[in-house]
Design brief:
Layout (H helix, E strand, L loop, with lengths): L20 E5 L2 E5 L4 E9 L2 E8 L4 H10 L6 E4 L2 E4 L11 E6 L2 H12 L10
Antiparallel strand pairs: 1-2, 1-5, 3-4, 4-7, 5-6
Length: about 130
């Protein structure tokens, strides 16, 4: 008896949310959704603001592997599919932690809203 092959298609809506945060090097990438963000912390100083982002510890090994393979390369850090930083990896990074600094606190406001909002929809002032 010969069995016919069975194909299964997973339907993904055309409006599917992009990853909330991504670190991309060509075809290699680390993608995190909103639930994967363990914490965000904002720091404001006279010279500007910083946004500290910590992914859940389950991402640490993937971060280490990705950054080890791309030492010396320029990555693409994205929040809601928007490039926010192009870091040059100087050494492997052992924890899934990102720090974004800017002298304009309104840009940090916008990134924080994208990370903490219910979706990656455009936020006011963007």
């Amino acid at each position: 008896m010969r069995l016919a092959p069975v194909f299964a298609l997973l339907a993904t809506p055309a409006w599917a949310e992009p990853p909330r945060l991504s670190l991309v090097f060509g075809a290699d990438r680390l993608d995190a959704q909103s639930a994967d963000i363990l914490s965000t912390r904002r720091i404001d100083e006279d010279r500007g603001s910083a946004l500290y982002i910590r992914l859940s510890p389950g991402f640490d090994a993937s971060m280490r592997v990705l950054t080890t393979a791309h030492v010396g390369d320029t990555g693409d850090l994205r929040i809601c599919a928007e490039t926010v930083l192009e870091p040059i990896i100087q050494a492997p990074i052992n924890e899934a932690v990102f720090v974004i600094t800017d002298t304009d606190p309104t840009r940090i406001d916008r990134l924080q809203a994208l990370l903490s909002g219910p979706t990656c929809a455009e936020v006011p002032g963007g």
